[in-house]
């Protein structure tokens, strides 16, 4: 009993180091596994419908990358995308996502359906980013006007002039630009007006405020208004309830995306989903 306190303290220190080492090893292992994920065909895409709120029509889909490892199981993009950014693997993963997405969407044979893909700041900063995108569009014969690239608010703010130039080049090629997770970063509204943008995606956190009882939707309202007044299309993301849909309709939000309409779907399920929409 005399030694309990001391032993406890010692164990805690050892425990701390063990945990640190374990964490670092885990990250290194994960990075090692991730390195072979593309070649081993462990990545796949799911597609989440984006719906026109007034017509109910699915106007496009957002491609979301998934990683299914034979031993680790399913790893969330929230865990492996940051690692991919840190290790530089994001470039090959990003190229794979774009190519697979273009091929899948072309196979649907619905010429009006748009494809949205996510690009992180690290991808945008890469010298060859635009060239890679154009190469893949050319190779797959995907119409650039059907492609939307989603860039987070924080990525826009990292290098304003550089990013503006790149977005302009993409737009000159016919590609549309969406600002993702809007309202979570700290964009200067002044710059927001100057960026060549087409669409603003209102972050899910603002949808969470819109609840049937005691919800405060002041900020959600203001953000939707801001987007519309800047002449942008507004997509609300993370829409889960009928109350949220009613609110968004009242606010003249253009498009909606979320579990209320559909979860991200495996490609074969997306085909069925879209076929069902056509019949109804
Ligand atoms: P994001 O671009 O903001 O994507 C939306 C996330 O919200 C997705 O999570 C989606 O599954 C989820 N979501 C959609 N509707 C709802 C809803 O109604 N309720 C809730 N609770 N969640 C909803 P996911 O698929 O886990 O992706 C997480 C993030 O990983 C994405 O956030 C994006 O930043 C990143 N990511 C995914 N795929 C890619 C990719 O191909 N490239 C890059 N660079 N990042 C990606
Ligand atoms: Ca997104
Ligand atoms: Ca988002
Ligand atoms: Ca997000």
UniProtKB/TrEMBL annotation:
Annotated compartments: Cell membrane
Q: Start and end of every EAL domain?
A: 27-278
Q: Which residues form the signal peptide?
A: none
Determine the domain of life of the protein's source.
Bacteria
State the name under which the record lists this protein: Diguanylate cyclase
Which organism's genome codes for this protein?
Tumebacillus avium
């Amino acid at each position: 009993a005399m030694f309990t306190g001391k032993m406890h303290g010692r164990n805690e220190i050892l425990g701390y180091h063990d945990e640190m080492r374990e964490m670092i090893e885990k990250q290194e292992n994960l990075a090692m596994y991730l390195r072979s994920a593309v070649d081993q065909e462990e990545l796949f895409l799911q597609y989440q419908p984006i719906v026109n709120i007034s017509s109910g029509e699915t106007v496009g889909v957002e491609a979301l990358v998934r990683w299914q490892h034979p031993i680790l199981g399913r790893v969330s993009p929230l865990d492996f995308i940051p690692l991919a950014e840190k290790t530089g693997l994001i470039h090959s993963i990003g190229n794979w996502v774009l190519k697979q997405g273009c091929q899948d969407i072309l196979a649907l044979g619905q010429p009006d359906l748009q494809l949205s893909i996510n690009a992180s700041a690290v991808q945008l900063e890469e010298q060859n980013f635009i060239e890679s995108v154009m190469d893949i569009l050319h190779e797959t014969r995907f119409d650039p006007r059907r492609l939307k690239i989603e860039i987070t608010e924080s990525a826009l703010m990292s290098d304003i002039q550089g990013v503006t130039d790149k977005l302009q080049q993409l737009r000159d090629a016919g590609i549309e630009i969406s600002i993702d997770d809007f309202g979570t970063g700290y964009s200067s509204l002044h710059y927001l007006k100057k960026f060549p943008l087409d669409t603003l995606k209102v972050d899910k956190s603002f949808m969470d405020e819109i609840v049937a009882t005691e919800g405060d939707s002041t900020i959600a309202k203001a953000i939707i208004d801001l987007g519309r007044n800047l002449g942008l299309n507004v997509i609300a993301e993370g829409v889960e309830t009928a109350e949220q849909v009613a609110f968004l309709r009242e606010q003249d939000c253009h498009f909606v995306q979320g579990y209320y309409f559909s979860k991200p779907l495996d490609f074969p399920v997306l085909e069925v989903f879209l076929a069902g929409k056509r019949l109804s």
